[in-house]
Amino acid sequence: MLAVLCLLPLAALSGPAAPTLKVTSPPNGAILTNHTVNITGLAGGSDFNWKQGSKTEFGTGTRTGLDYNATGAMFLDRTLIEDFDDNSFDTTKWSRSNAGGITTTEVNKGLRHNGRNTASGYWNGWSRVTSTAAVPNIVSADLTSFGGSGTGYSTMIALYQDDSNWIGIGLAVDTSAYGAGTWVVYSYASGGSLTGATLRKVTAGSHNYMVKCSGGTAYLYEDQFEAAKTTLTLSSPKVRFAGSTRALSDTIDAT
């Protein structure tokens, strides 16, 4: 799974008396690099106040997302871009945890969930990769391959605050719950209450999945189309990739 987490402001324009600000988002799927914005002075005006007064402050941003608050202040978030292309797991950006024989490695220019479940019970064979720092309230990744064997296996990308508050979307096979086939699924936890649902059967091939939280609503996308949304607020979330298997001897291989 290749992750691209983007929040890229493009232009800030100011004048001597009544400065204006223009923030333009790139089109879906676009990645912009090596863009800088020079900011001189502080903007005034009645609509909002530009609180970041230097190029350094602009680059640092905050962890609250791109937002206008009640006082009119505007905040810009940090951006994390990771393509997992060097076959070396970066422990400064990511942490790993696993159980029941499932592991996650960075191989073949991707993040791979792989293994055979050695744990008893249900959904006790899993592997998770979580960013070490909070990210913008939007995350997307390409799932290039998804396979396994047995009664069930799944993989998901999520915005993760803690075990009681998170939301994710991905693919799952669960013959006991869904019947035959591979399904687009989503699940989320709010205050410890867990909710999940299937969205549709999916065709083979590469798919892009995205999770976004904005204004108290979480949006889930597949291939740039909105698949579902729900009421949810997360505070300083991290990004999490997860792979899991349902029962003993089930396998997963997803990248």
Brief description of this entry?
Helix content is 2%, strand content 47%. The chain is mostly beta strands.
The CATH class of the domain at 82-254:
Mainly Beta
Structural class: mainly beta
Q: Shape, please?
A: globular
Uncertain runs: 2-18, 39-52, 61-70
Distance between the termini: 5 Å
User: Do you know the CATH architecture of the domain at 82-254?
Assistant: Sandwich
Strand count: 20
Proportion of strand residues: over 45%
Oligomer: single chain
Say what the CATH topology of the domain at 82-254 is: Jelly Rolls
Summarize the helix and strand pattern as letters. EEHEEEEEEEEEEEEEEEEEE
Mind describing the biggest β-sheet? Answer: 7 strands, antiparallel
Tally of alpha and pi helices: 1
Quote the average pLDDT.
Answer: 79
Report the radius of gyration as a whole number of Å: 20 Å
Cross-sheet strand order for the largest sheet: 6-9-19-12-13-14-15
Helix content: under 10%
Please characterize this protein's 3D structure.
The chain is an all-beta fold and 255 residues long. The chain has a domain at 82-254: Jelly Rolls. 2% of the residues lie in helices and 47% in strands. The chain contains 1 helix and 20 strands. It has one helix spanning 55-60, and strands at 2-4, 49-50, 67-68, 73-75, 81-82, 94-99, 102-107, 110-116, 125-131, 138-143, 146-149, 152-162, 165-174, 183-190, 193-201, 207-214, 217-222, 225-231, 238-245, 251-254. A 7-stranded antiparallel β-sheet has the order 6-9-19-12-13-14-15, with no helix packed on it. Strand 12 (152-162) and strand 13 (165-174) form a beta hairpin. The N and C termini lie close together (5 Å).
